[in-house]
Request: fold
Amino acid sequence: MKIQKQIDFVVDWLRQQVKLSGTRGLVVGISGGIDSAVVANLIKKAFPDNSLGVILPVKSNHKDVEDGILVAEACGIKYITVDLSKQQEDIVGKVTNELKNQNLYHEKNQRVMDANLRARLRMSTLYSTANNLNYLVVGTDNAAELHTGYFTKYGDGGVDLLPIANLKKYEVYEWAKVLGVPQRIVDRPPTAGLWEGQTDEVEMGVTYKSIDAYLEGKPIDQKDKEIIDRFHKSSQHKRELPPIPQINI
Reply:
């Protein structure tokens, strides 16, 4: 079966990456979504005894935590839960107060600041965990997210390995089926869990189906194409290392 061979290839690739890095295993943040469910299964297969899932609620809906636990228990991966709600609230409050004290605060940017901090705190926590265990941090971005830049710079985009970044969203679902991801997770609307009721497709204004078709060179609605192109262009900096000036004076 083609998909099983692809899965086996990536599992072996993960083992090679750990060997090359001189580390011991792999850690992934488990959100309860389809992408992290697939990656949790992959790293568990690669390292049955040296893989860990971390559930990272930040003022999250309790269902997100329940779904994360369901993912972990379904694939048999060890997991821990680290609630970052207080830490995120403390930082947002301190930054907001200091900006207001200097009359620099912009209310319209508050939600973005709040959401991106959640992603960056989660990734900092994953790296703290990985450092303690001498593991690598594995990301969950797929091809559609990578192309559009639908990830937080130095948040969910700040990882060591991206095992499903070549998979379009529909392929992630195909892999999930082969891996035995619970149906409740498969049926769940894709969300980054950045705020209550947030979903990927509503926030982006374009469907994963349309993005997948675009990536495969198929014709799509012109409006969708414009949205995808705009996202790709504006997020180019996320896919590159920080610019360095070439000083030749």
In short: DSSP finds eleven helices and four strands in the chain. Residues 96 and 105 are 7 Å apart (CA to CA).
